[in-house]
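[Q] Does anyone have a clean structure-token version of this?
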Amino acid sequence: MSYGPNPWQQTAWDWRAAGNFIGGGAGGGLIVFAALEAALGSSSPIRFACGSVLIALGLSCVWLEIGRPLRALHVYLNPRLSWMSREAILAGLLLPCSVAAVFGLPGAAPVAGVLALSFVYAQARMLNAAKGVPAWRAPRVVPLLVCTGLAEGGGVFLLSSLLHGSGSVALTVVAALLIVARWALWRRYRGALAAARGALAALDAAAPVLRWIGTAAPLALIGAALALVLVGNGTIDAGVAGVAAALAGVGALLGGAWFKLILVTRAGFNQGFALSRLPVRGVRRAATPTPDAAA
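[A] Here you go.
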């Protein structure tokens, strides 16, 4: 690879790093939804377990990416400066708390929800800390990634509602609002990258999936599910409304996962060197005037 003033695509983070953001975001978002569900008085402990498994799978992807996996514990050594260290510490607190929520330990569900939201935020800040990559360092990527993780978690929540045979209408509406917010944040983020041409080309190629599969289709399906609820028994059961909500969840999850995969693996162009003057073979370098000569 030739390094120089022109941007080049980073190769340090590949699909395994993207897998951490996908699994961690979806798992953390699902735990947040599970905590909200518990606050509404209809707890489903299996959702805490599924969220923990998704987070563990995401972290396992990062562990596979490390050249020396036995040194993974070094990530805990710098929490004062590193968002990766904070992510690992939060995961170490979140997973046991989520397991406690599975067994119904009093107070575990809301604490797990707060830790899960903090974990998703730490992941977003971790990507944003890569200041050499314009598509990652943009400040608007943080709220976009947080909202994407929550929308993915809402998608898994809607999908699991079909398996449970019932779902919350209120949380279905929350999932729909997060999908709308994700698209709005995406548009604002996209507009802030006018100068990052390489990243824009990759992100624009991923936009149709996020627009149609991840946003338009889920919103239409959620609208159909809610309409069926209004004329039915007032709950999202395992019937047609449940199937529509589950398909909406799949679309919301796939749209967010595809966006994160493209953002990490294809839109991660380094800035390049800021050289004000480049050497040209066969051309004599102009002498730089001294202060005395200039006087």
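[Q] Thanks! Anything notable?
[A] The chain has one domain: 15-270.
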